[in-house]
Write a structure and sequence with these properties.
Distance between the termini: 23 Å
Structural class: alpha+beta
Mean pLDDT: 94
Oligomer: single chain
Largest sheet: 6 strands, antiparallel
Helix content: 40-55%
Strand content: 5-15%
Order of helices and strands: HHHHHHHEHEEEEEEEHHHHHH
Number of helices: 14
Radius of gyration: 22 Å
Number of domains: 2
Number of strands: 8
């Protein structure tokens, strides 16, 4: 039964994730941008996921149709809808929302206020156990090494089987023409910029994984994937994006996703964190590329996937498509920037909040129930109208205002990440169960 964790096991997972997430955050560059209130929208999203019961409601319906183990297995493919970043976010964002609430309650207590209810009631404790158990069963069935995190698995993200690698190995081509390499680097750079802007300056549509070897070669292979390119088509018949109108640019991509494969020689190190970000030694891996390949994924609806062999078709592409993708990325980037620069604060904030909450629509798609939820609740927040049953509009608006008193809208609990190791061991950043 999902959620059947002891307090001790739950607390061990909370401590583990507190340190795992801290390592990722401390090693990350500043997330705030000139265009989007990134920290503010993340804090808002975490509140919705936890205290509004948003994540609990959706996942409880999902597990009636499909178990987390199977979601993990169905994602072991190039160009998957869900990946290590999406899996890690299930635990990280929920626990951040929980920590925000606990921190708020403790602040009230320290001011001498008498709480009307426990800091964490039994219902919320059970919910937290359910979330952690869901995540605990999800990630190991996605990763080849059966580990919970990349951090725990030696900073690698290997998900493809030898059979899958063998099937695509002949798609790799030795690169002798420097002009092709230049086109590839330009395409990757433009798509990265376009993706960051379209996803409110986060990595939601970019994922990197590896390293792999094929046929005992000394070369290391890694993959870089770009999702959510606007081609005018829905993702495998999944139509949950009407409210994300800014993604529907006048220019269209020739494909809805792109996968680069790089075979690298003479590399000292190829590592990955749990957000699917790569780190290389030497740092400019492009100087060590020997072979490359490019593909797109034929988007079968994920409810129709069956592991391990029916996970959608990976289609090789010719290098000529790079020019088309560059044109799309540049024109889309220009159009998005001009559009977004005119948005007010709330439009920008809710665009980011949407990315960090409605990613659960992809989980719902694996269960085939994505159309059973009203994903357009974001519009209700912008219009201050209660036309949905997903969130309480008034409460969300009040929380957004509350966060404005803090620099960049960053919830003060985040300061707990910067305490000493000794303090964090006895009192984890994300708080032990509160009884």
């Amino acid at each position: 039964m999902l959620g059947n964790l002891s307090d001790e096991e739950t607390n061990n997972l909370i401590l583990y994730l507190s340190e795992n997430i801290r390592k990722g955050l401390i090693g990350r560059s500043v997330v705030e941008s000139q265009l989007f209130p990134v920290t503010h929208y993340i804090s808002t999203a975490c509140y919705i996921l936890y205290l509004q019961g948003f994540q609990n409601r959706i996942l409880k319906e999902i597990v009636k149709k499909i178990q987390p183990e199977e979601i993990g297995r169905r994602s072991k493919t190039l160009g998957s809808y869900l990946n290590q970043l999406a899996f890690h976010s299930i635990a990280m964002l929920y626990l951040h929302g929980r920590a925000q609430h606990i921190n708020d309650m403790k602040f009230k207590m320290n001011k001498g206020e008498k709480l009307k209810e426990p800091i964490e009631n039994e219902e919320k404790i059970a919910e937290t156990k359910f979330m952690l158990d869901f995540w605990k069963r999800l990630s190991p069935n996605y990763r080849n090494d059966k580990k919970l995190t990349a951090d725990d698995g030696g900073n690698i993200i290997q998900i493809l089987s030898d059979k899958q690698l063998d099937k695509i190995k002949d798609d790799f081509i030795v690169i002798k023409d420097k002009s092709i390499m230049n086109e590839l680097k330009k395409t990757s750079a433009l798509l990265t910029n376009q993706n960051f802007l379209s996803q409110a300056e986060c990595r939601a549509g970019i994922f990197e994984h590896g390293p792999y070897t094929i046929d005992n070669s000394k070369e290391l292979i890694f993959f870089k994937e770009f999702q959510f390119l606007y081609s005018g088509e829905s993702l495998g018949g999944i139509e949950v994006s009407d409210f994300i109108d800014h993604l529907k640019t006048s220019v269209k991509s020739p494909i809805s996703n792109l996968i680069f494969g790089f075979s690298l020689k003479n590399m000292e190190e190829v590592k990955f964190n749990d957000w699917g970000t790569s780190f290389f030694k030497p740092p400019d891996y492009t100087l060590n590329i020997n072979k490359i390949a490019i593909w797109t994924k034929d988007y079968t609806h994920p409810k129709d996937f069956r592991a391990p062999d029916k996970l959608g078709e990976v289609i090789p592409l010719k290098f000529e498509i790079l020019k088309e993708l560059q044109d799309y990325a540049q024109k889309s980037l220009n159009e998005l920037y001009l559009k977004m620069a005119k948005w007010n604060f709330m439009k920008k904030l809710m665009t980011g909040t949407n990315v960090y909450t409605n990613f659960l629509a992809l989980y719902a798609a694996y269960a085939g129930i994505e159309n059973e939820f009203n994903w357009k609740w974001v519009l209700d927040i912008l219009e201050n109208k209660q036309n949905n049953d997903m969130v309480n509009v008034k409460d969300v608006l009040n929380y957004i205002e509350k966060l404005k008193v803090f620099p960049h809208g960053a919830h003060p609990f985040l300061a707990r990440y910067f305490r000493t190791k000794k303090s964090r061991k006895t009192d984890p950043t994300l708080y032990y169960i509160q009884r």
